[in-house]
Predict the structure.
Amino acid sequence: MENVPDTVAFPNVDDAHDEVQAYAKAHAEKPPEDDASVKAELVALGLFASHPQESSPWGTHFGPMMVTRKGEYPPLAAITPEMIGYWKIRAQACAHPRLRARYADVAWDLGPKLSGGKRDPQFARIAIDAYVADCGLAGIELYQVEGLERALYLALKLGDDARVRTVRDTILAFQKKVASPVKSKLVLFHFDALYDQRKKVKLSDTQVAEMVDGLEKQLTQWSDPTAKCFDPWSARDLGQRLVRHYRATNRLDDAKRVVQVYAKAKLYLAGQANGMLAHQWLEELHQDYLDAGMRAEADALVPAIKQAGERMAGEMRPISVELQVSNEEMEQFCQEITEGGPEAAIRRIAAHFAPDTEHLLTEMHDIAAQYPLMSMIAVSIADEFTRAQIGGIEDDEAGRLVMHMHQHLAFESPFLHQAISRLLSRYDLTADQLVELIHRSQLFEIERKPLLIAGVKHYLAGDHPSSAHILIPQIEHLLRRLLRNLGGITVSLDSESKTYREKDLGTVLRDPLMEQFWKQSAKRDIALYLRVVLTDQRGLNVRNLVCHGLCKPDWFTPQITDRLLHILMLLSLLRMEKRDGDEGDATGSSPPTDTP
């Protein structure tokens, strides 16, 4: 293929790869030297070019074309010194700039991975010149843009001022040539490539002004609902680049003006959309207003966001999965978990329904392996406003674990309810008797016993709102008391008022002393479970929802108060040990580890 003239327009190197592959299939019986050449061609033309520039799994620009659970293809080990030598020869012999750029760049990029030595700048220069020359040919414009971005990176890395200027001017000229309102990348790429490095590339004030003027004109078109090229998404992308420029030049009024221009487009679009899309776009715009220092506009948008959130909730449809458990199976479960007397039953319930984080983590990854697409999709949790966002399993394993635990708790809730109900009925326990059993831990204080009795009485009467409002503060107090007993601090000094304030419960539960205590003594991450139930917006978040008054009457169900009772049962199993020099508060425990 070294004789391919530069007038032949391969759309991209993938087409050249396909031609080599077709040749290999048609000539299955090849001499060894020909076979080695074909392999070198297929590797060079098949590697994936990463953006940003050196973010492949190998820490290079070029990397494997695919990565699966079984490994990389091709693996780095498949690349040999002979291949590097072959690519260098091809880079110097090939006439077509598109191919010449690929051979020279892979030789420059991957050579040190094999030899451990320095790169030969000759091949970076060949690649730069070839990427620039390729823009004079017909081809796929987006790929040519990526080539220019790569050429600029290489020229800057070499410190080759002459080539930096050449690439800079080519980028500006190519943008004018290919810019199209239907392809936002072709409109914006020159700004993305040059603006943040304007000093390094010696971008003149005139060039910056021309760039900004062109973007301003395109912003007007993309933001106009009556224009054929109306595109509010691209208008926002463009607008944010202009805002960066105007902030950098201290033209804050112009920055606000730009936000107002594309905001009109987003508001128009939101007015035509369903609740979910409108909610997302309005929240996005709300953040843009705040970032631009437009507090009044941001505040004025809040009612519209709330309305869109209410519409979104009304448009959603519940998805349910039926789980069938026979009466015989449930009866056997309830009998086994509550036998041996009420104390043994409380201990068994506390242990059985304390989630095993390691097991859930393994289960979560097993499900992700079965359904990989679902594990990649980001999740937003919202009511009138977005309350939490959870990324894909690779990017946000901790968030996915919280979500998985939340789902696990929901799945277990009928069993927990039946277990507590059977405990109460089997041993004919009153509120006073149940609290007496729970109160056997030194963590609990005598003077607060009436509050727990009142909360349990409301639970037994089916008054779950009253029960939750009483039990949640008592649980929070117990957890703060536990941290103090462990040697932790539950208050912080406010730097402005110079007064002490209680740390929020989420901070208490994330304290390393608390996390370490539960992991060592319970052999489970009980601190995470407590956060999922009480304070994590990605989970039940019971404490915060109740204490901020965000719960409607139908939110207060037995599933909520069952979990509160379960937490009290867990805490009731703590046995405190005295520390030297202490009157009474101390640390240590014998928390649950057994299951029925």
